[in-house]
């Protein structure tokens, strides 16, 4: 049994390495940058550098590595549930147990409002421009949407997560390009290490503004960093 309703045929896009850079090899034969690569290259890292300098490189690396591990485990619990319709058990590892509790919050607060799931870990691309993988595509409260799961060490403020919104738009644009849809809504489901749930949304009325910002970042990347 699965929670997925197969409305579209999603195919795997392979990753490759070009001059030491990780890229997606899309079916049209082009190697393109990922969404996350574009965002990372074009973002303002002033605050990130200041934080790493303040607490030290070693401590900063420890924090980010641990957070990434917990986030990966949290994602895996949600992916397994979506693929099998069976809620997984966490085992005895304390990090796994924490990630499991975080996943439960997203299941309770977010997935309960998802009417249909079309795909999980879906590869998407815009020809000759970019590619990436979104956590979830489907219908949220009646509307086609792109959805992503995130973990955080502490609660987020909306002004901190511009790149999350741009990710949603990037995946929506790619899905619309590939599958002829008209997705103009996206949702980010976040759970903190203290199991506090947060949600941030892009609604159709503001979609075009974020779409313009996303393509500005894409053009900036190819002009300056590619």
Query: What does the radius of gyration come to?
Result: 18 Å
| Share in β-strands | 25-35%
Q: pLDDT below 50 for ≥5 consecutive residues: which ranges? A: none
How many beta-strand elements?
Answer: 8
How many DSSP H or I helices? 6
> Biggest sheet, in brief?
8 strands, mixed
- What gross morphology would you assign? globular
Q: What oligomerization state is this entry in? A: single chain
Distance between the ends: 43 Å
Order of helices and strands: EEEHHHHEEEHEEH
* Proportion in helices: 40-55%
What do the pLDDT scores average to?
A: 89
Reading off the top of the CATH hierarchy, the class is best stated as Alpha Beta
CATH architecture tag: Alpha-Beta Complex
Condensed summary:
The protein has 226 residues and is α+β, with helices and mostly antiparallel strands. It is 45% helix and 27% strand. The model has no long low-confidence stretch (mean pLDDT 89).
Furnish the topology, listing elements before pairings.
Layout: E1 14-18, E2 21-25, E3 31-34, H1 35-42, H2 46-55, H3 57-84, H4 94-109, E4 114-126, E5 130-140, E6 143-152, H5 162-179, E7 186-192, E8 197-202, H6 204-224
Parallel strand pairs: 3-5, 6-7
Antiparallel strand pairs: 1-2, 2-3, 4-5, 5-6, 7-8
Helix pairs in contact: 1-6, 2-3, 3-4, 5-6
């Amino acid at each position: 049994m699965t929670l997925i309703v197969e409305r579209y045929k999603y195919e795997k896009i392979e990753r490759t390495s070009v001059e030491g850079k990780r890229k997606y090899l899309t079916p049209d034969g082009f190697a393109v940058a990922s969404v996350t690569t574009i965002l990372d290259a074009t973002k303002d890292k002033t605050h990130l550098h200041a934080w790493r300098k303040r607490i030290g490189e070693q401590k900063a690396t420890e924090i980010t590595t641990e957070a990434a591990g917990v986030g990966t485990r949290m994602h895996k619990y949600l992916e397994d549930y979506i693929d099998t319709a069976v809620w997984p058990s966490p085992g005895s590892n304390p990090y796994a147990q924490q990630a499991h509790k975080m996943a439960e919050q997203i299941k309770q607060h977010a997935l309960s409002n998802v009417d249909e799931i079309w795909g999980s870990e879906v590869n998407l691309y815009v020809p000759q421009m970019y590619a990436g993988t979104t956590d979830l595509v489907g219908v949220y409260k009646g509307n086609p949407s792109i959805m992503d799961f995130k973990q955080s060490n502490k609660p987020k403020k909306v002004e901190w997560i511009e790149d999350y919104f741009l990710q949603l738009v990037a995946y929506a644009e790619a899905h619309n390009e590939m599958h002829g849809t008209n997705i103009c809504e996206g949702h980010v489901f976040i759970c903190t290490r203290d199991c506090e749930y947060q949600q941030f949304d892009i609604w159709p009325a503001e979609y075009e503004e974020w779409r313009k910002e996303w393509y500005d970042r894409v053009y900036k990347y190819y002009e300056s960093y590619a």
